[in-house]
Each structure stands twice: as structure tokens, then as C-alpha cells.
From TrEMBL:
SUPFAM superfamilies: Periplasmic binding protein-like II. InterPro entries: BUG, Bug_dom1. Keywords: Signal. PANTHER family: BLR1237 PROTEIN, TRICARBOXYLATE-BINDING PROTEIN. Residues 1-20 form the signal peptide. This is Tripartite tricarboxylate transporter substrate binding protein.
Length: 320
């Protein structure tokens, strides 16, 4: 009996010691809701690798792609709020998808907690470097001369990038055929092969091919030029005043995650974003690093959530 009691006491002490270990006491899974090779995957792995290297945490990226990024978000919503599950969300699956998909299983403003903003990036319109389209004006002229003759690829239906193309078509009063893909990498391969005329892409997804001379950027869709591509004009500069479509990336955890965990992760990510090395790495990918408090990211989410409701409704786009 004494031996049993001593054994139980030892187990209890071991359990208490484990509970008292500073966070994180085990690896953290970072759900990446898009396939490998795209902008979300690139930034997710950059953050995960740097957190592992600098903070000595173990952060493991896990691609859970599909349905415009909504499958990965839904998996994060279902995860235990233990602090060991997080997801790299962005405008596509956090604020656009809820208004596009009729039967979405989550409400991002209620089912997830904002943790840390990472970066924002404009969308870029690109074509193959040997394409006949030298400028965005060339695209518009060709589309008006032969409606629906020009094709453009995107990472998938319902993404901000897809809608950026649709909004541009409306602003320019032209018709082009949208070709959705399962992620940026597949769309990129087809535009490089000449199977589609254009691609609307996040800058991180397209940056290496632009720098390698294989893609020609025609315009960025943000209100101001990208510091990564300072010579590329904005769509607004080219005569479409007020045109402004960009996307952002941020880390979220399941609702109910302890506040002290959220504060700890936010502090580590913000510390990382402040380092010259990390800033340079993010800018090299075509994104702009931007730290926020959890409250600021939550405000951004809720503001964009309502803003994109009217944009999606005006576009008439829906996905079953």
C-alpha cells in the first residue's frame, strides 16, 4: 500500500511539474491552408522556421489545402484551444470566403482568436515575359477588341486574388475568362507554359519568377506601389482611380485559447518582425512586414469582414 501511495504521489508530482513548464512545452502545429509553393505557404514557413531558430520553439507547418483555404481554417476552428494549434489566415479565407460560400462551417469573428499580424501584400497582375502584352493597357485593348478571348488564372474561386481580377474587369468594363486553380503554384505553371494569358497573384507567390525574368508584372492592385517592385505602377495610376485590393496574413488560434498564450505568441512574433533579418526576408518575398497587437488584428479582421460583404454581394459571386 505504501509503495502504491508513493507511486501515485510521484505521478502527481510529475504531472504538476509538466503543467508548470513554461509555454510552449511541446511542438506547435501551424496549419497552412494552401498548397506548398504559394504565398501563404512561403510566409508561413518563413515565420515557423524563424520562430524555431530564434525563439527555440518547435513550430511545424502543416499544409491543409482546399476550397480557397477554408478547409484549413475549419480544421483550426475544430482544434483544441490548447495553444498548440494555430493557422495562418488571410483575407481570402477569413473575410471573403464567409460571404462567398453558402454553407461555410465557421464564423472567423467568433470561432477564432486573433494572435499576431505578420504582413500585407498587394496583388500583382503578371504575364509571361515574352507575352504580347507589354502593359495593362494592352490587355484592356485586346479584351475590348475580342471579349472573353483573354484568360487569367488565380489560386482558386473565392480568393481575394480571384475577386481582384473580377473587380478589375468591372472597373475596365472588359470581359476575360477566369481559370481557377488549386493554389498559386498550379496557376503559375500554366501561365509560364503559356496555357493562360495572365495570372492574378499575391506578390510572394510571383516574386521569384519576376526576379528570375520569367514573368512580367503589369500592375499592382494596392493603393501605393510595392517597395519590392517600385517601378511597377498601380492599377489606380493607370486610370482606375480608387482601385485598392491587397491582402494580409495573420496567425489565429481556436476560440478559447488562454489569453496568456496569445500574449506570449504575439510578443515572440512581433519581436521577430522587428529584426532587420526578418524584415528583409519578408520584403524579399514581395510582402510588407507589419506587427500588431491581438486587438489591432481583431479590429482589422472585423472591419474587413464587413467591408467585403458589400464587395462580394456587388460582384454577384457565390460558391456552393
Amino acid at each position: 500500500m505504501i509503495r502504491k501511495l508513493l507511486t501515485l504521489a510521484a505521478l502527481a508530482l510529475a504531472f504538476t511539474a509538466a503543467q508548470a513548464q513554461p509555454y510552449p512545452a511541446k511542438p506547435i502545429r501551424m496549419i497552412v491552408p494552401f498548397p506548398p509553393g504559394g504565398g501563404t505557404d512561403i510566409l508561413s514557413r518563413l515565420v515557423a522556421n524563424k520562430l524555431t531558430e530564434v525563439s527555440k520553439w518547435t513550430v511545424v507547418p502543416d499544409n491543409r489545402a482546399g476550397a480557397g483555404g477554408t478547409i484549413g481554417i475549419a480544421e483550426a476552428v475544430r482544434a483544441a484551444p490548447s495553444g498548440y494549434e494555430m493557422v495562418m489566415g488571410q483575407k481570402d479565407n477569413m473575410v471573403v470566403a464567409p460571404w462567398l460560400y453558402k454553407n461555410l462551417s465557421y464564423d472567423p469573428t467568433k470561432d477564432l482568436v486573433a494572435v499576431a499580424h505578420v504582413a500585407y501584400t498587394p496583388v500583382v497582375i503578371v504575364t509571361r515575359s515574352d507575352s504580347k502584352f507589354k502593359t495593362l493597357a494592352d490587355v484592356v485593348a485586346a479584351a475590348r477588341a475580342a471579349p472573353d478571348s483573354i484568360t487569367y488564372g488565380s489560386p482558386g474561386n473565392g480568393t481575394t486574388i480571384h475577386l481582384a481580377g473580377e473587380i478589375f474587369k468591372s472597373a475596365a468594363n472588359i470581359k476575360m475568362r477566369h481559370v481557377p486553380y488549386k493554389g498559386s503554384n498550379a496557376a503559375m505553371m500554366d501561365v509560364l507554359a503559356g496555357n493562360v494569358d495572365l495570372m492574378v497573384s499575391s506578390l510572394p507567390s510571383a516574386m521569384s519568377q519576376i526576379q528570375g525574368g520569367k514573368l512580367r508584372p503589369l500592375a499592382v492592385t494596392s493603393a501605393r506601389r510595392s517597395s519590392s517592385l517600385p517601378d511597377v505602377p498601380t492599377v489606380a495610376e493607370l486610370g482606375y482611380k480608387g482601385f485598392d485590393v491587397s491582402t494580409w496574413y495573420g496567425l489565429f488560434m481556436p476560440a478559447g485559447t488562454p489569453k496568456d498564450v496569445v500574449v506570449t505568441v504575439n510578443a515572440e512574433v512581433n519581436k521577430l518582425l522587428a529584426t532587420p533579418e526578418m524584415k528583409a526576408a519578408i520584403i524579399a518575398q514581395g510582402a510588407e512586414p507589419q506587427a500588431m497587437t491581438p486587438q489591432e488584428l481583431e479590429t482589422l479582421l472585423k472591419t474587413d469582414y464587413q467591408k467585403w460583404k458589400s464587395i462580394v454581394q456587388a460582384s454577384g459571386a457565390t460558391i456552393e
